[in-house]
Amino acid sequence: MKREHFVIVGLLALAWALLLGQPTALGAGLRVFFLRLATPFQRIADLIPVVHSHNQLAADNKKLRADNNTLRAQLAELQHQRAENQQLRALLQIKQAAPWRTVGARVIGRDASNWWKSIQIDRGTDDGVRPDQPVLSASGLIGKTIHVTAGESRVLLLLDPTCKVGALLETTREPGIVSGANAALTREPRLQMSFLDRKSNVKVGDAVYTSGLGGVFPRGILIGTVTEADLDPQGLYQNVELKPAADFRRLEEVMVILP
Amino acid sequence: MNFLIIATTALLLTALQARLPTAWWIGGFRFEFLPALVAYGALTFRRRRWAVVLAVAAGFLQDALSAGPFGNTGAAYALAALLLVTLGRAFDRDSLWMQMLAGAIASAGASLAAIAVIGGQNAALKLLLLAAVSAVIAPFLFFVLDFARWRSRPA
Fold first, then answer.
1. What residues of chain A, 211 to 250, have a C-beta less than 8 Å from chain B?
2. Where exactly are the structural domains of chain A?
3. ipTM of this predicted structure
4. Nearest to B65 among A109, A146, A189 (CB)
5. Is the pTM of this model over 0.80?
6. Fewer CB within 10 A of the end CB, N or C, for chain A?
7. CB atoms within 10 A of CB B109
């Protein structure tokens, strides 16, 4: 018998012994070894029907992708409508509760310059809007109209250093002037309240409302809350920083108080 | 045709400037594209007056969509254009650095004019950032407009 025959017979005997015998460590080890050896090829073999049906799958995939895109677009639209709906509901609640005559407006543009803070809205003189009319969001005061045309108006935001609003501290009823913080870069929109008595007992979290002085803004509109009060030792007044009640980063729908 | 290209570009850039959302993550920054257009006009037009006309028009467009006093930016851009025309005659217009410098000068001019009105408290960083961004935008605009004007030339 040749050496080759010994090998074949030996392997057959091993196979027979493994087949008939009890599970052993050797058998288990061999099983795992061959399984690992065969698995990659098995996967290649599995691909053969895929290759046959590739065209069908590609077509299915294309259709599913198109369906997915449509559904994503519909979902995005629904989410957008839901957010808009929430904003409009909030505005409607204010409109129903407020004693003023108002008109809703949509924000259609922002300031083209970095140095002034304003927005453009889609309401103008045709809708009864005039210059120097207060503009609100669902959360609080936004600013006032400045340039008004037939169908559009520019609103000077509270964030602008040139927009000054007569204000009152809710707790102490002490008056001051609120305006945009300064021309610097700020990650969070901030306001400053100036001309507030240095003896005033200001606390972080105190609400600040319009005072009604000045004739533009009616009394009692929420402007923001105190985030920082700093007493200048040489100054006559306190420097107070406010967080605006309105979210100036997400202005979409606003309300103009009509004359 | 050149006029049409420049006018359309000015309107598009103004709309873009007013419609792009504010980048609060970099301190409430808004991208400005018109300084780059002013720089382009100043370094490209052979006649100084056309560079100034474009600068004033660009400034007026910006002021029309801003709460700032109308004419403030127009005047600043005009002065910047005059300076840039002089510089452009002394230096290579096609140099990348010259284009970047021109964009930065136009932007800084408009910023200084605005600061003169509202005050310059803590405004230096913002001025520098705006100038840097305009310096980056300018070469892109030069490339696009040069290409558009070259394509539109009669054969």
1. 249
2. 1-97, 102-257
3. 0.85
4. A109
5. no
6. N
7. 25
